[in-house]
Amino acid sequence: MARTLVTGGSGFIATHVIDVLLKAGHSVVTTVRTPQKGQNIRDMHPGVPQSKLDFVIVEDIAQPDAFDQAVVSDPPFEYVFHTASPFHYKYKDAEKELLQPAIIGTTSILHAIKKSAPSVKRVVVTSSVAAVRSKEKNVGGYVYTEADWCSVTAEDVKKDSSMGYVASKTLAEQAAWKYMKDEKPSFTLSVINPTLVFGPVAPHSSLSSINTSNERVYSIMTGGAKSGCPPTGTNALYVDVRDVAIAHVAAAEKPEAAGKRFLLIGGHFTNKQIVEIIAESFPSLKENLPTGEALEKGGEASIVGDYTFSNAQTREVLGIEFTSLKQSIVDTAKSLQALEQSA
């Protein structure tokens, strides 16, 4: 089967992409920042030989030549999945910590592939729904599709640094499509745009480094919402990480996915629903959960504007059937419990 490169292999989505690839028979090389992170990934697959799962060190994806050596392989790569991009809200300098790594990391790997990896057929980039949605369209029953783009600019971030993450995903994806148009490389591009992602965490994770979305579930499980279920946020949407991983691989392998974006949205959710799912499925955790007024006074989603999303292209082209919220939360909670026990 195909030789495949996955950037940012220790990330939440990437670990699941690697799992899907290995099960499909691919041999995988992943980029990581440290040897320990690479060994952690290998430890997750103890029966897989190094010839089928290996890693290379890329310490700083914000360097223009960061991936020049990583894309060179024998046997050569056929597919590249670029998942490496910062996702957090604990930054001080949005330009340096979010925008530059996201934009330069994306364009540098595309350039490296064009220059040194002519065997690559398809590149799949992990973007976000953040690159699709714009507040000015959140009216009148608007239905978002892959044709929509967030209107944020780099100048907006200078005025409001809280826009850093949204801008990083939007500008990085725009840079990727611009590269394809201007440089006309031999490979094709597909982009995955997931919303907030729940799902099982990797066994080698630590509770201090779980992804932002699953932090919400863990906080609820462990009593963080007992005195009052926190507001869900605005128009909250979820997708299961396993669906996102399957979509990545399908986007690489299906010829008809070339040149397309794919919205990955399983449906709406509220924090109240998460509480109710955990209460029903994990009786031992009930004492940690809000009830009565503490549950009812918060936990619902704040609806800002009248809009929805269409995931028709994802279903039709990639063949994705989305995991239910209940299944996603139950499996997330089980994995977090296992992580607690192994800590």
In short:
This protein is of the alpha/beta class and 343 residues long. It has eleven helices and 14 strands.
SSE inventory with pairings:
Layout: E1 3-7, H1 12-23, E2 27-32, H2 35-43, E3 53-57, E4 79-82, H3 94-116, E5 122-126, E6 142-144, H4 154-159, H5 164-183, E7 188-194, E8 196-198, H6 212-221, E9 233-234, E10 237-240, H7 241-253, E11 261-264, E12 267-268, H8 271-281, H9 292-296, E13 301-302, E14 307-309, H10 312-318, H11 325-342
Parallel strand pairs: 1-2, 1-4, 2-3, 4-5, 5-7, 6-14, 7-11, 8-10, 9-13
Antiparallel strand pairs: 10-12
InterPro entries: Epimerase_deHydtase, NAD(P)-bd_dom_sf, NAD(P)_dehydrat-like
Protein name: Major facilitator superfamily protein-6
Pfam family, one: Epimerase
Helix content: 25-40%
Which fold name is given in CATH as the topology of the domain at 3-136 and 143-198 and 238-265 and 306-321? Answer: Rossmann fold
User: How many H/I helices?
Assistant: 11
The CATH homologous superfamily of the domain at 3-136 and 143-198 and 238-265 and 306-321 is named NAD(P)-binding Rossmann-like Domain
What strand line-up does the widest sheet have?
3-2-1-4-5-7-11
Q: In whole angstroms, how far apart are the ends?
A: 36 Å
| Total number of strands | 14
Task: Report the CATH C-level class of the domain at 3-136 and 143-198 and 238-265 and 306-321.
Answer: Alpha Beta
Secondary structure class reads alpha/beta
Major pleated sheet: 7 strands, parallel
CA radius of gyration is 20 Å
List the quaternary state of the chains.
single chain
The ordered H/E elements are EHEHEEHEEHHEEHEEHEEHHEEHH
**DSSP strand (E) fraction?**
15-25%
CATH architectural arrangement of the domain at 3-136 and 143-198 and 238-265 and 306-321: 3-Layer(aba) Sandwich
- Shape from CA axes? globular
Give the mean pLDDT. Answer: 91
Poorly predicted runs are none
Family: Belongs to the NAD(P)-dependent epimerase/dehydratase family. Dihydroflavonol-4-reductase subfamily.
Protein name: Major facilitator superfamily protein-6
InterPro entries: Epimerase_deHydtase, NAD(P)-bd_dom_sf, NAD(P)_dehydrat-like
GO molecular function: oxidoreductase activity, acting on the CH-OH group of donors, NAD or NADP as acceptor
